[in-house]
Amino acid sequence: MDRKLEHWQVAQHLSGGPDISKYNVEVRLGCLRKKLVSCGAELPAIQFIRVEGYKLCCNVKAMSN
Fold first, then answer.
1. CA-CA distance, 22 to 55, in Å (whole number)?
2. pTM for the complete prediction?
3. What is the 3-state secondary structure (H, E, C) of 1-65?
4. Phi, psi at residue 12, to the nearest 5°?
5. Exposed (0-12), middle (13-18) or buried (19+): which is 35, by Cβ within 10 Å?
6. pLDDT digit string (tens) for 24-65?
7. What is the strand order of the sheet 46-49 is part of?
């Protein structure tokens, strides 16, 4: 399973469009990394891949209440 997302794809998921700044993407991904680690994910939970984008490096299971 390929867990890579390009920069524009991450921006679109975070803001609904590609107009979000790269700095804002990094800040929001930093918060998400901390949350994943606090839930037991190993480092790096999300990896930056130069020129390509980002890669999810842990398993995530969505649960409903």
1. 16
2. 0.77
3. CCCEEEHHHHHHHHHCCCCCCHHHHHHHHHHHHHHHHHCCCCCCCEEEECCCEEEECCCCCCCCC
4. -65, -40
5. exposed
6. 888 999 999 999 999 999 999 999 999 889 999 988 888 887
7. 4-6, 53-56, 46-49
